[in-house]
Amino acid sequence: MYHEELKNLSIFTGSYGDRWLVQCHSTPCQTHQAKIDKAVKMTTVIDISKAAGCSPATVSRVINNSGSVSQRVRQRVERAIREEGYVPKNPPRGMPDKRRAKSEETDTANVVEVILFQRGSLEQIHVGKDGLEVGPMEKIAGQQLFSPALRLSNSFFQHIVDGVLDELRHRNLKAMLQVCHDLTAKPFLTDLNAGKKKGALLIGEPSPDLTEFTRNCKQPLILVDMICDATVDVVTIDNFQGVASVVEYLTSLGHRNIGYVGGVGNPAYHERRVSFTWHMLEAGLPVKNEWISEGTSHIEETTQRMIHLLNKPDRPTALFCCNDWVALGVLRAAQHCGLQVPRDLSIVGFDDVEGATFMTPALTTVHVPTGDLGRRAVEQLLVRLDSRQTKLEYGCQVRVTTQLIIRESAAPPQHE
Question: For 356, what's the count of Cα atoms within 13 Å in the CB-facing half-sphere?
Fold first, then answer.
């Protein structure tokens, strides 16, 4: 149920997440947080009333086409609504049905639903005096995911959203941005499918409900870094190429005993594991099961899991990690075991999140162009719309290339 006081606003909180209109008219130099802050702060009836110099009740009368309002005041309110990108949730009651339907269609025709799916909890990560500090797992409310306090924890998805908003701005389109915790929630699906929108972009964590969601979504849909067998288009990372660069780099340093630290439940991690095995075998190197550790990608759990592996006398000289936060867990485990990185153990991550440069030592990792992922997703949506083939027998995959970023966490092995 929506909060009663928010029922006529563009931003609202529901049982399934938060949603707010982002008018993508900002300049390129504006930060993502500034865009979100503006969207959040300038989407209420009260804000419109302040901009128009009248009472909230007057704004409500203009929106609902009810009561007496002078032409001069009405024009001020309508101008403020246009300038702030405010889209009333409910159509004006006094409008005839045909005009109301036309108004609703006009309001949403240039809107792209941008959905950030976040199922589980987050470990809050901060920069402390001794480097990165990891807090406990916490369930985060929707809008908090975009707060400065969670910039490090959620930077990967925030930068994808940055790219989406930037491309929509260039295309003179609007974004209806929301955070969703349940892809099967009926209120969420009802609202998503209401109106004739430009389309929808789904970004975020993998979900077992993803295939069902793609069937239930009636809007043209693009999945962003969410690999799925469903009949929709996917814009994601070239994991095969990214892993190839890691194996090639580590072997060029002289490493032959290389292990893999992965996660579970994410098709991208599965691709990285398969690619790692393939490239190791192609290089004529052994893939030892005892040097492969897979579990959750949580930092604390990874640390505890890796302490056991690193305490063994027969351990690898290098570890490739499925993402950078897993790599942080390995770094912490190495420190606990008295190993110096990279002298005793080389570590390479994947993603190049903002926190990678704050690790000690700075993490060598595969850079994922997250902003490009967002921009390419918008482009693919428009390509699909231009083709007039929004209902597909099968979808296509757009793979974005990566780049290895060499920092300080990998070096030639001291011994093999």
Answer: 27
Q: Integer distance in angstroms from the first to the last C-alpha of the chain?
A: 61
Q: Is the dihedral of CA 147, 149, 154, 155 positive or negative?
A: positive
pTM: predicted TM-score of the whole model, two decimal places: 0.77
pLDDT digits (tens, 9 = 90+) for 273-318: 999 999 999 999 999 999 999 998 899 999 999 999 999 989 999 9
Q: What is the 3-state secondary structure (H, E, C) of 67-133?
A: CCCCHHHHHHHHHHHHHHCCCCCCCCCCCCHHHHHHHHHHHHCCEEEEEEECCCCEEEEEEECCEEE
Please state the rounded mean pLDDT for residues 177-193.
89
For residue 195, give both structure tokens.
């109106």
- Residue type (1 letter), 382: L
| CATH of range 239-368; options 3.10.20.30, 3.40.50.2300, 1.10.8.60, 1.20.1250.20 | 3.40.50.2300
Say what the alpha-carbon torsion angle 355, 361, 366, 372 is, to the nearest 10 degrees: 30
- Percent of the chain exceeding pLDDT 70 equals 76
- How much is the average pLDDT of 254-270? 95
d(CA 398, CA 337): 42
Nearest to 40 by CA among 76, 85, 5: 85
Residue type (1 letter), 70: S
What number of H helices and E strands is found in the chain?
13, 16
